Amino acid sequence: MADTIPTDIYDQIGPAKFDDFMDDFFRHIKANKNIGGLYPDDYAELKEKYKPFMSDFLRGNIIVTKNGDPELPADRDRTLISRNDADEWVNCLRLTLNDYNVPDDSRELLLREVQQKAYEMVNAPQ
Questions:
Q1: What is the model's pLDDT at position 8?
Q2: What number of CA atoms fall less than 13 Å from residue 52's CA on the CB side?
Q3: Is the sign of the CA dihedral 81, 86, 91, 94 positive or negative?
Q4: Is the dihedral of CA 7, 12, 16, 18 positive or negative?
Q5: HSE (side-chain half, CA atoms, 13 Å) at 89
Q6: How far apart are CA 28 and CA 31, in angstroms?
Q7: Separation of alpha carbons 110 and 107, rounded Å
Q8: Are 32 and 92 in contact (CB under 8 A)?
Q9: What are all long-range contacts of 90-93, with beta carbons under 8 Å and residues at least 24 apart?
Q10: What are the b/e assignments for 14-53, b being 16+ CB within 10 Å?
Q11: pLDDT (tens digit per residue) in 30-85
Q12: Rounded to whole angstroms, how far apart are CA atoms 55 and 83?
């Protein structure tokens, strides 16, 4: 397989299951002892803000920069995010992709790119 970002993961999951995918992703986040506390217990509003961002990622459109993404919640600028936090966030996405049986090669190529973008959001030391 070529070393390019997969563009079909969203379709593999299926638009009809995307809300469930997002719920499962936030369940993994909330269950994570390191980053769960960074997110509200009621993540419904946050989920709606993340949906365009996540659906773009799952389609291979990874464009978030340090200047931010208009689709992401603005309060992340006030939240300290370490490299470990970024790794944990990516791992929660990995777990969710595993739950939806995304093939290993597609999953790992996507996650490598997502991880680089997650590191761009780091604003705190370890």
A1: 85
A2: 9
A3: positive
A4: negative
A5: 19
A6: 5
A7: 5
A8: yes
A9: 90/114, 90/115, 90/118, 91/32, 92/25, 92/28, 92/29, 92/32, 92/35, 93/25, 93/28
A10: eeeeeeebbebbbbbbbebeebbebbeeebeebeeebeeb
A11: 999 999 998 899 999 989 988 888 888 888 776 654 444 444 444 545 688 899 99
A12: 23
The residue to which tokens 């689709």 are assigned: 71
What is the residue whose two structure tokens read 């993961």? 9
Q: How far apart are the first and last CA of the chain?
A: 35
Which two structure tokens, joined as six digits, stand for 77? 């600028």
Largest CA distance in the chain: 40
